[in-house]
């Protein structure tokens, strides 16, 4: 390969990969400096320049202008420097061309390795910068295969593994299946970005609602908190900044289509949309939906403990299967909730 072909090949690569041309040419010049020193065993200060259009390569020994020369490899007298150019002064650096014949051919292997290394580094950098912008956001991925308890997912320009802890129990993860994933974290490593994705993170539900509900995207409706047990049930508390907009209605959508789209993406996970309130009594009452609540009593405001009384026939619904409804309501509100039926309260009062 001659110099012109080299330049054309490099320009094609940087254009295809989206890499800054200067970075690759600087890397090539540095590689050629190293190659020169290795091949010619010199301790000179060396500079290599490459013409970006013609591909011409020039090697220069760099010498400092001094009054008294002690090292001919590193220094040049003022008198000799001014024979080259009268404008040179003390402490200037003079470039003296020392380009060997067939220098590119002799240095090709070292230069090639360095350029390939730099291209890979730049590709990893570009990939990291692309995905770090998607941290805490949703991406669409295509399932490739299951590897033991992990799932290999194609997420565009790279692949990543979905860990067992981030998998939903009701997902099938079949080859070619398109799913939405939440980008939990993007870590920079020497082998490229390590992209941690999830199907269980509460942020996935939040982002799905932002995609489905224009009022959330526009900032009219706000998601205040989310409590999720992935694959089973999620509670989401919403608040409207506009009194003319019903927050829960906006999230449910016409004929329930908006919430249904989220449910479908989450493979049938149940979703309770409740109205947020700054009044803890009202918020706790709403959070226990679909159960009906008789009253909420704040037992300890500092420790955030509340007692909830429900009708006898609503007790099992309020607590939920294996305590799930009460557990999610507590997580959603940030309050410890003690649920009692009316008859249980009457018994307690008798005992007292």
Automatic annotation (TrEMBL):
InterPro entries from the UniProt entry: KH_dom-like_a/b, KH_NusA_2nd, KH_sf_prok-type, NA-bd_OB-fold, NusA_N_sf, S1_domain, TF_NusA, TF_NusA_bacterial
Chain ranges of the S1 motif domain: 136-200
GO BP annotations, alphabetical order: DNA-templated transcription termination; transcription antitermination
Location(s) in or outside the cell: Cytoplasm
Alphabetized UniProt keyword annotations: Cytoplasm, RNA-binding, Transcription, Transcription antitermination, Transcription regulation, Transcription termination
Pfam family for this entry, one: NusA_N
Alphabetized PROSITE patterns for the sequence: KH_TYPE_1, S1
Superkingdom, taxonomy of origin: Bacteria
A Gene Ontology molecular function term of the record: DNA-binding transcription factor activity
Major subcellular site: cytoplasm
This protein's GO CC annotations: cytosol
Keyword Transcription among record annotations: yes
Family: Belongs to the NusA family.
Function: Participates in both transcription termination and antitermination.
PANTHER family: TRANSCRIPTION TERMINATION FACTOR NUSA, TRANSCRIPTION TERMINATION_ANTITERMINATION PROTEIN NUSA
Subunit structure: Monomer. Binds directly to the core enzyme of the DNA-dependent RNA polymerase and to nascent RNA.
HAMAP family, per the entry: NusA_B (MF_00945_B)
Protein name: Transcription termination/antitermination protein NusA
